[in-house]
Amino acid sequence: MAFSERVARLKSSLIREILAAAQRPEVMSFAGGLPAEAMLPKVEWADMPVSMGQYGMSEGEPALREALAAEARALGVPCEASQVLVVSGSQQTLDLAAKLYIDQGTEILLEAPTYLAALQIFQLFGADCLSVPLEADGPDLVELRARLEQHRPAFIYLIPTFQNPSAVRYSEAKRDGVAALLDEFGVTLIEDEPYRELTFDGASATPIVSRLQRASWIYTGTVSKTLLPGLRVGYLIASPDLFPHLLRLKQSADLHTNRVGQWQALQWIGTERLRDHLSELRDFYRGRRDGFQAALHRHFSELADWELPQGGLFFWLTLKQPLDTRTLLKAALANDVAFMPGEPFFPDPDRNLGHLRLNFSHIDPARLDEGLKRLAAVVREGQARQAA
Amino acid sequence: MAFSERVARLKSSLIREILAAAQRPEVMSFAGGLPAEAMLPKVEWADMPVSMGQYGMSEGEPALREALAAEARALGVPCEASQVLVVSGSQQTLDLAAKLYIDQGTEILLEAPTYLAALQIFQLFGADCLSVPLEADGPDLVELRARLEQHRPAFIYLIPTFQNPSAVRYSEAKRDGVAALLDEFGVTLIEDEPYRELTFDGASATPIVSRLQRASWIYTGTVSKTLLPGLRVGYLIASPDLFPHLLRLKQSADLHTNRVGQWQALQWIGTERLRDHLSELRDFYRGRRDGFQAALHRHFSELADWELPQGGLFFWLTLKQPLDTRTLLKAALANDVAFMPGEPFFPDPDRNLGHLRLNFSHIDPARLDEGLKRLAAVVREGQARQAA
Model confidence over A259-279: pLDDT tens digits? Predict the structure, then answer.
């Protein structure tokens, strides 16, 4: 059986196994990144024209592209609708970017930690993944400069606002600093912003692409975290030099994004109704975060350190006494608790032991305390086993 | 600007330009492959559960996978629901297959002519495209054996039922012959069946994958030609050795196919309502085909040869006096007529001059005669210019 070389790089199914195990109703899961079921808005379809059933344009629905460009301009991103490509969820942006840039051995630059599925698809295409350490307010700029001086990465991939997994939001100074370095070295920025709207303090965080003077860029977002993930509607906005290539790669990937989802997204984007929904969503998730923080203090204050997330869906724990958290999974699942080990979020997992990513949005609050209590016990047992 | 090597292989946008030009309302277009607008069924959404808005499984909706497996078994394809992967239109199957098999220089085997977008994506990934000539009843089996004796292609890609562009339907004997050769040489079959249900004579055409004894296979279909292309819901069914890889590649491409489209497809597949709709669709397209055939006789009988298509959406014309039909495009569009030149459907276009693909499903019958008359005049002028 002769598969492509890339198939040998398809990652083991650890994550799939965790998420599959977490489906069992008795499992208290902190593993996924699912929006809360109760907060999925009720949507109407009765007014959708029959023509949405026909083939559409690879670029996406013209009215939706206009609406997305207007929203991006309001954030400070200088763009026209002609730079907007509707994609089948922002995961597809990563696939298109990988195709645009990555040959076997191509160097790219990532934050450490970074979004697991991005790491996986970049590695699938054969990228050599360099990384920059993430601090509480964004990447270490000294290290970033050093990487850029020593390497010519094809692009840098960043999630500056409520990063998955670390929940870090870059400061204004770090945003400016990153933009200046990318302009200086002429390195393309891929800025991934799924969590921007899920902010609990409303503080400003203008996109980095809006601060660039020279470097090429791709900005990507989605309606999955604000409206309905099941629609699979995301978008990218690209500098004009990149757009035509991305469009042709999109066409060859799946012709175009489903039009029913695009039509539904258009009913919401830029409307008062969406602003109201987002406001409810933030209140709801802020409440869940606060409950989670209290329970964490009860069960993990001796075991781990963490920052209070100001947005997004995750707590990122750093164990005071590090161990490979992947070794805790089996015991956790045996106790009907699921979590996401931190190691796979790093390009070099074995040198980054001792983090846990815990989702706070999806767990039933009635089971939260019991879940964290059991997880803390699993961690303690693991540490005792390691010390023995 | 350092893009991947594959970007240099992104094809020129000839086809995009044709289709864009064909959008002008005054253009009589035979270029696309669009279902007739009038035949898009009215669909209902009122009963869709809110949960369809949540993230779903990469495999697809369980009930839809069951329904698709049952349909495939009824066609003779031996499979379980566990072998069914719901994809974002069957175009995505080609993307996943390319990722699974193709490194730069990997040999693959295609019919000549073959589906243009398949050729493009396989070449994008760097495939070396070998081809087998297509006869009126399927591929030349002597040539197929010769290719298999001289090469070790990673797979063969075939569209055995109402092929795009040639409208060829393989005979039973050719289907058996192809299956026997693939088993003998152990070559994987990718069988693409978008047009199977659009049959005008109802003759049998059991899938080739159902005749295989040993070879691995991927069978792919879509609801785009039977229900609504705008849903972007297709599927693949794979032999168990291939399925886990395809699933992981699907997950990295776009997590999962949109669930609203999947839910809608499930409301139709296997129902009396879909059978009634397909029956109407066949009658409608058969009528359009007959009208097209009559108009072709009026305007093209001295210029070209063709077979009457027994299904699908296209007539495939072979000019009696060959010329590069790409050179006719400009004049055709200047006369407000669009068509698809045949050359790009071949891996070696310059050695396969003189075919035209004409779509008969989408043109307004009131403009058909005028359109073909103008197109015939463009061909005559081109031939006169060439002779001069």
Answer: 999 999 999 999 999 999 999
